[in-house]
Amino acid sequence: MCVRYEDTVSIETVLSTPGRLFQFILQVEETFHIIADNSPFMELNSCSVTLLHLFCSLYIFNVGYSPEVNPSFLFIEYSVLEVVDDVSSRCRS
What we know:
alpha+beta
């Protein structure tokens, strides 16, 4: 998962780019899109709500986090949402 921001981007252009393995957030003007399996999954108007939906969908469907966001999402799981399981408990300091 990677959060991308570009001033002049269209969903069609992004979806035509091959090689995206993880879900990510794409902002187009004032709208935030969750892209999964190279298709728009959700369209929302708030960055924080979009991030929460992305995180929840990854957690609920037991999809692995991309290496770039793994430490951050484990922190959100354990410290913010207080989810304690065998993975999140390993990120205690």
